[in-house]
Request: fold
Amino acid sequence: MDVFSNQRRAKKISVVTGGAGFLGSHLSDRLLEAGHQVIAIDNLLTGNVRNIEHLFGNADFRFIEHDVTNFIYLPGEIDYVFHFASPASPIDYLEFPIPTLKVGALGTHNTLGLAKAKGATYLIASTSEVYGDPLIHPQKEDYWGNVNPIGPRGVYDEAKRFAEAMAMAYHRYHRLDTKIVRIFNTYGPRMRLEDGRVVPAFIGQALANEPLTVFGDGSQTRSFCYVSDLVEGILRLSTSDTHNPVNIGNPTEMSIREFGEAIIKKMKTSSKLEFKPLPIDDPRIRQPDISLARELLDWEPKVDFDTGISQTIDYFRAFIESGQ
Ligand code: UDP
Reply:
Protein backbone atom coordinates (compact mmCIF):
# COMPACT_ATOMS: atom_id res chain seq x y z
CA MET A 1 0.00 0.00 0.00
CA ASP A 2 1.34 3.41 -0.91
CA VAL A 3 0.56 6.58 1.00
CA PHE A 4 -1.21 7.98 -2.04
CA SER A 5 -3.16 5.45 -4.10
CA ASN A 6 -2.61 7.04 -7.55
CA GLN A 7 0.81 5.61 -8.17
CA ARG A 8 0.78 6.19 -11.94
CA ARG A 9 1.58 9.62 -10.83
CA ALA A 10 2.27 12.94 -12.40
CA LYS A 11 2.83 14.70 -9.11
CA LYS A 12 5.97 15.00 -7.04
CA ILE A 13 5.69 13.58 -3.54
CA SER A 14 7.20 15.59 -0.69
CA VAL A 15 7.64 14.67 2.95
CA VAL A 16 7.65 17.60 5.38
CA THR A 17 8.72 16.82 8.95
CA GLY A 18 7.44 19.36 11.42
CA GLY A 19 4.53 19.68 9.00
CA ALA A 20 2.15 20.90 11.72
CA GLY A 21 4.52 23.63 12.83
CA PHE A 22 4.82 27.27 11.83
CA LEU A 23 7.23 26.84 8.92
CA GLY A 24 6.33 23.25 8.04
CA SER A 25 2.65 24.08 7.59
CA HIS A 26 3.37 27.08 5.35
CA LEU A 27 5.82 24.98 3.35
CA SER A 28 3.19 22.24 2.96
CA ASP A 29 0.66 24.81 1.69
CA ARG A 30 3.16 26.12 -0.83
CA LEU A 31 4.20 22.65 -2.06
CA LEU A 32 0.54 21.72 -2.60
CA GLU A 33 0.06 24.95 -4.55
CA ALA A 34 3.07 23.98 -6.66
CA GLY A 35 1.33 20.67 -7.49
CA HIS A 36 3.08 18.31 -5.07
CA GLN A 37 1.51 15.64 -2.93
CA VAL A 38 2.54 16.23 0.67
CA ILE A 39 3.05 13.86 3.58
CA ALA A 40 3.35 15.95 6.73
CA ILE A 41 4.91 14.24 9.74
CA ASP A 42 4.83 15.77 13.22
CA ASN A 43 4.81 14.50 16.79
CA LEU A 44 2.91 17.63 17.88
CA LEU A 45 5.40 18.48 20.62
CA THR A 46 5.37 22.14 19.60
CA GLY A 47 3.34 21.86 16.37
CA ASN A 48 -0.45 21.89 16.28
CA VAL A 49 -2.95 20.25 13.90
CA ARG A 50 -4.78 23.58 13.88
CA ASN A 51 -2.08 24.76 11.44
CA ILE A 52 -2.99 22.09 8.88
CA GLU A 53 -6.67 21.41 9.53
CA HIS A 54 -7.57 23.35 6.36
CA LEU A 55 -5.66 20.66 4.41
CA PHE A 56 -7.44 17.60 5.75
CA GLY A 57 -9.95 17.52 2.89
CA ASN A 58 -7.19 17.75 0.28
CA ALA A 59 -6.62 14.41 -1.51
CA ASP A 60 -2.98 15.35 -2.08
CA PHE A 61 -2.28 15.76 1.63
CA ARG A 62 -1.65 13.23 4.39
CA PHE A 63 -0.76 13.80 8.01
CA ILE A 64 1.14 11.22 10.05
CA GLU A 65 1.64 11.73 13.78
CA HIS A 66 5.11 10.36 14.38
CA ASP A 67 8.31 11.27 16.20
CA VAL A 68 11.05 11.29 13.57
CA THR A 69 13.71 10.49 16.16
CA ASN A 70 12.33 6.95 15.69
CA PHE A 71 12.66 4.98 12.45
CA ILE A 72 10.44 6.32 9.67
CA TYR A 73 8.72 3.84 7.41
CA LEU A 74 6.86 5.16 4.37
CA PRO A 75 5.78 3.01 1.44
CA GLY A 76 6.02 4.12 -2.17
CA GLU A 77 8.10 6.71 -3.95
CA ILE A 78 9.23 10.02 -2.50
CA ASP A 79 10.83 12.88 -4.42
CA TYR A 80 11.68 15.37 -1.66
CA VAL A 81 12.29 15.22 2.08
CA PHE A 82 12.13 18.54 3.93
CA HIS A 83 13.33 18.15 7.53
CA PHE A 84 11.69 20.99 9.47
CA ALA A 85 10.85 19.24 12.74
CA SER A 86 12.37 20.91 15.81
CA PRO A 87 11.42 23.01 18.78
CA ALA A 88 12.46 26.46 17.57
CA SER A 89 12.13 29.07 20.28
CA PRO A 90 14.47 29.72 23.20
CA ILE A 91 11.82 28.84 25.80
CA ASP A 92 11.10 25.59 23.95
CA TYR A 93 14.78 24.63 24.09
CA LEU A 94 14.72 25.22 27.85
CA GLU A 95 11.63 23.07 28.25
CA PHE A 96 12.62 20.36 25.75
CA PRO A 97 16.43 20.32 25.61
CA ILE A 98 16.81 16.61 24.91
CA PRO A 99 14.06 16.34 22.25
CA THR A 100 15.69 19.37 20.58
CA LEU A 101 19.06 17.60 20.45
CA LYS A 102 17.45 14.33 19.37
CA VAL A 103 15.40 15.74 16.50
CA GLY A 104 18.42 17.62 15.13
CA ALA A 105 20.66 14.56 15.45
CA LEU A 106 18.63 11.32 15.31
CA GLY A 107 15.80 12.96 13.35
CA THR A 108 18.27 14.22 10.78
CA HIS A 109 19.87 10.79 10.52
CA ASN A 110 16.49 9.07 10.05
CA THR A 111 15.24 11.58 7.48
CA LEU A 112 18.51 11.38 5.56
CA GLY A 113 18.15 7.60 5.62
CA LEU A 114 14.62 7.92 4.25
CA ALA A 115 15.81 10.23 1.45
CA LYS A 116 18.63 7.85 0.61
CA ALA A 117 16.31 4.81 0.51
CA LYS A 118 13.95 6.65 -1.83
CA GLY A 119 16.56 8.47 -3.91
CA ALA A 120 14.89 11.73 -2.86
CA THR A 121 16.28 15.26 -2.72
CA TYR A 122 16.85 16.32 0.89
CA LEU A 123 16.57 19.78 2.41
CA ILE A 124 17.41 20.50 6.04
CA ALA A 125 16.15 23.56 7.91
CA SER A 126 19.26 24.97 9.51
CA THR A 127 19.49 28.30 11.25
CA SER A 128 21.34 31.55 11.74
CA GLU A 129 21.99 30.11 15.22
CA VAL A 130 24.91 28.21 13.70
CA TYR A 131 26.63 31.63 13.71
CA GLY A 132 25.97 31.96 17.49
CA ASP A 133 26.82 35.43 18.81
CA PRO A 134 28.52 36.44 15.58
CA LEU A 135 31.85 38.24 15.40
CA ILE A 136 31.32 39.31 11.81
CA HIS A 137 28.43 41.34 10.48
CA PRO A 138 26.38 40.74 8.40
CA GLN A 139 26.73 36.96 8.48
CA LYS A 140 27.92 35.21 5.34
CA GLU A 141 27.73 31.47 4.78
CA ASP A 142 31.50 31.03 5.03
CA TYR A 143 31.55 32.32 8.63
CA TRP A 144 31.98 29.40 11.05
CA GLY A 145 30.27 31.01 13.99
CA ASN A 146 30.76 31.77 17.66
CA VAL A 147 28.62 29.25 19.51
CA ASN A 148 28.63 28.28 23.19
CA PRO A 149 28.08 24.50 23.02
CA ILE A 150 27.09 24.14 26.68
CA GLY A 151 24.78 27.14 27.15
CA PRO A 152 20.98 26.83 27.19
CA ARG A 153 20.75 27.63 23.46
CA GLY A 154 23.54 25.14 22.70
CA VAL A 155 21.04 22.28 22.43
CA TYR A 156 19.54 23.89 19.33
CA ASP A 157 22.69 25.44 17.89
CA GLU A 158 24.79 22.31 18.17
CA ALA A 159 22.00 20.01 16.96
CA LYS A 160 21.69 22.14 13.84
CA ARG A 161 25.46 22.26 13.36
CA PHE A 162 25.53 18.48 13.65
CA ALA A 163 22.61 18.28 11.19
CA GLU A 164 24.55 20.32 8.64
CA ALA A 165 27.60 18.08 9.09
CA MET A 166 25.41 14.99 8.69
CA ALA A 167 23.76 16.33 5.53
CA MET A 168 27.17 17.11 4.01
CA ALA A 169 28.42 13.63 4.95
CA TYR A 170 25.43 12.02 3.18
CA HIS A 171 26.08 14.23 0.22
CA ARG A 172 29.80 13.42 0.04
CA TYR A 173 29.70 9.77 1.04
CA HIS A 174 26.35 8.61 -0.34
CA ARG A 175 26.09 11.20 -3.13
CA LEU A 176 22.68 12.23 -1.82
CA ASP A 177 21.26 15.44 -3.29
CA THR A 178 21.20 17.56 -0.13
CA LYS A 179 20.47 21.24 0.50
CA ILE A 180 20.94 23.32 3.63
CA VAL A 181 18.95 26.47 4.29
CA ARG A 182 20.12 28.77 7.10
CA ILE A 183 16.96 30.43 8.25
CA PHE A 184 17.09 33.82 9.97
CA ASN A 185 14.30 35.16 12.23
CA THR A 186 11.03 34.51 10.42
CA TYR A 187 7.57 35.70 11.42
CA GLY A 188 3.99 35.45 10.29
CA PRO A 189 0.64 33.78 10.97
CA ARG A 190 0.69 30.43 12.86
CA MET A 191 3.52 31.33 15.21
CA ARG A 192 2.52 30.26 18.69
CA LEU A 193 1.34 33.15 20.82
CA GLU A 194 3.05 31.62 23.86
CA ASP A 195 6.29 30.47 22.26
CA GLY A 196 8.26 33.31 23.82
CA ARG A 197 9.69 34.67 20.59
CA VAL A 198 9.71 38.39 20.29
CA VAL A 199 7.16 38.78 17.50
CA PRO A 200 4.26 36.88 19.12
CA ALA A 201 5.32 38.09 22.59
CA PHE A 202 5.12 41.80 21.71
CA ILE A 203 1.97 41.50 19.59
CA GLY A 204 0.22 39.47 22.33
CA GLN A 205 1.28 41.97 24.99
CA ALA A 206 0.19 44.94 22.84
CA LEU A 207 -3.22 43.35 22.19
CA ALA A 208 -3.66 42.91 25.94
CA ASN A 209 -2.40 46.46 26.65
CA GLU A 210 0.32 44.94 28.79
CA PRO A 211 3.94 46.13 28.92
CA LEU A 212 6.21 44.88 26.11
CA THR A 213 9.00 42.88 27.76
CA VAL A 214 12.26 44.05 26.18
CA PHE A 215 15.16 41.84 27.24
CA GLY A 216 18.39 43.67 28.12
CA ASP A 217 18.54 47.28 26.95
CA GLY A 218 16.93 46.29 23.63
CA SER A 219 20.00 47.31 21.61
CA GLN A 220 20.46 43.75 20.29
CA THR A 221 19.39 43.49 16.66
CA ARG A 222 17.42 41.02 14.57
CA SER A 223 16.38 40.98 10.90
CA PHE A 224 12.83 39.73 10.40
CA CYS A 225 11.72 37.87 7.28
CA TYR A 226 8.07 37.32 6.41
CA VAL A 227 7.17 33.64 6.13
CA SER A 228 6.01 33.67 2.47
CA ASP A 229 9.39 35.10 1.41
CA LEU A 230 11.22 32.41 3.35
CA VAL A 231 9.11 29.62 1.84
CA GLU A 232 9.73 30.94 -1.67
CA GLY A 233 13.49 30.88 -1.01
CA ILE A 234 13.27 27.31 0.30
CA LEU A 235 11.36 26.16 -2.77
CA ARG A 236 13.96 27.71 -5.06
CA LEU A 237 16.79 26.15 -3.08
CA SER A 238 15.13 22.70 -3.27
CA THR A 239 15.35 22.69 -7.06
CA SER A 240 18.77 24.34 -7.28
CA ASP A 241 21.99 22.40 -7.68
CA THR A 242 23.77 23.90 -4.71
CA HIS A 243 24.72 21.74 -1.73
CA ASN A 244 26.47 24.24 0.50
CA PRO A 245 24.41 26.24 3.01
CA VAL A 246 22.45 29.25 1.78
CA ASN A 247 21.18 32.07 4.03
CA ILE A 248 17.52 32.93 3.58
CA GLY A 249 16.38 35.96 5.52
CA ASN A 250 15.50 39.61 5.24
CA PRO A 251 18.50 41.92 5.67
CA THR A 252 16.39 44.77 7.10
CA GLU A 253 17.87 44.94 10.58
CA MET A 254 16.41 46.65 13.64
CA SER A 255 17.06 46.73 17.35
CA ILE A 256 14.56 44.99 19.62
CA ARG A 257 13.81 48.37 21.18
CA GLU A 258 12.97 49.79 17.74
CA PHE A 259 10.85 46.73 17.06
CA GLY A 260 8.90 47.29 20.31
CA GLU A 261 8.39 50.97 19.49
CA ALA A 262 7.19 50.06 15.98
CA ILE A 263 4.63 47.61 17.43
CA ILE A 264 3.35 50.22 19.91
CA LYS A 265 2.97 52.80 17.15
CA LYS A 266 1.38 50.42 14.68
CA MET A 267 -1.07 48.91 17.15
CA LYS A 268 -1.91 52.21 18.86
CA THR A 269 -1.72 50.43 22.21
CA SER A 270 -1.23 52.08 25.59
CA SER A 271 1.51 49.49 26.33
CA LYS A 272 4.96 50.76 27.33
CA LEU A 273 8.35 49.08 27.09
CA GLU A 274 9.44 47.19 30.21
CA PHE A 275 13.07 46.10 30.49
CA LYS A 276 13.90 42.58 31.71
CA PRO A 277 17.22 40.71 32.08
CA LEU A 278 18.87 39.56 28.85
CA PRO A 279 18.77 35.75 28.48
CA ILE A 280 22.11 33.88 28.54
CA ASP A 281 23.96 33.85 25.18
CA ASP A 282 21.36 36.05 23.47
CA PRO A 283 23.12 37.11 20.24
CA ARG A 284 23.96 40.85 20.14
CA ILE A 285 23.52 41.26 16.40
CA ARG A 286 22.07 39.31 13.51
CA GLN A 287 21.69 40.14 9.86
CA PRO A 288 21.90 37.83 6.86
CA ASP A 289 24.18 38.50 3.94
CA ILE A 290 21.96 37.21 1.12
CA SER A 291 24.33 37.72 -1.83
CA LEU A 292 24.51 33.97 -2.36
CA ALA A 293 20.70 33.53 -2.46
CA ARG A 294 20.47 36.46 -4.87
CA GLU A 295 23.13 34.99 -7.11
CA LEU A 296 22.20 31.29 -7.02
CA LEU A 297 18.43 31.44 -6.57
CA ASP A 298 17.59 34.88 -7.93
CA TRP A 299 15.80 35.31 -4.62
CA GLU A 300 15.28 38.27 -2.35
CA PRO A 301 12.51 39.15 0.09
CA LYS A 302 9.49 40.98 -1.32
CA VAL A 303 7.27 41.60 1.71
CA ASP A 304 8.16 44.75 3.63
CA PHE A 305 7.98 44.91 7.41
CA ASP A 306 4.82 47.01 7.51
CA THR A 307 2.84 44.61 5.30
CA GLY A 308 4.12 41.46 6.99
CA ILE A 309 3.60 42.71 10.51
CA SER A 310 0.04 43.89 9.70
CA GLN A 311 -0.86 40.40 8.47
CA THR A 312 0.69 38.87 11.55
CA ILE A 313 -1.17 41.23 13.88
CA ASP A 314 -4.45 40.41 12.09
CA TYR A 315 -3.77 36.70 12.59
CA PHE A 316 -3.10 37.04 16.32
CA ARG A 317 -6.09 39.32 16.82
CA ALA A 318 -8.39 36.77 15.12
CA PHE A 319 -6.72 33.92 17.00
CA ILE A 320 -7.33 35.56 20.39
CA GLU A 321 -10.91 36.50 19.46
CA SER A 322 -11.64 32.90 18.44
CA GLY A 323 -10.81 31.94 22.05
CA GLN A 324 -8.63 28.94 21.01
N1 UDP B 1 13.12 39.33 23.22
C1 UDP B 1 12.63 40.34 24.00
N2 UDP B 1 11.44 40.17 24.64
C2 UDP B 1 10.69 39.04 24.51
C3 UDP B 1 11.18 38.01 23.69
C4 UDP B 1 12.40 38.17 23.07
O1 UDP B 1 13.28 41.40 24.14
O2 UDP B 1 9.60 38.98 25.13
C5 UDP B 1 14.39 39.51 22.54
C6 UDP B 1 15.39 38.37 22.73
O3 UDP B 1 16.14 38.59 23.90
C7 UDP B 1 16.22 38.46 21.48
C8 UDP B 1 15.22 38.97 20.44
O4 UDP B 1 14.14 39.53 21.15
O5 UDP B 1 17.24 39.42 21.62
C9 UDP B 1 14.70 37.89 19.51
O6 UDP B 1 14.27 36.84 20.33
P1 UDP B 1 13.53 35.56 19.77
O7 UDP B 1 13.26 34.68 20.93
O8 UDP B 1 12.37 35.99 18.98
O9 UDP B 1 14.53 34.88 18.76
P2 UDP B 1 16.14 34.66 18.73
O10 UDP B 1 16.56 35.50 17.58
O11 UDP B 1 16.76 35.13 20.01
O12 UDP B 1 16.29 33.22 18.52
Notes: The first helix runs from residue 22 to 33. The chain has a mean pLDDT of 96.
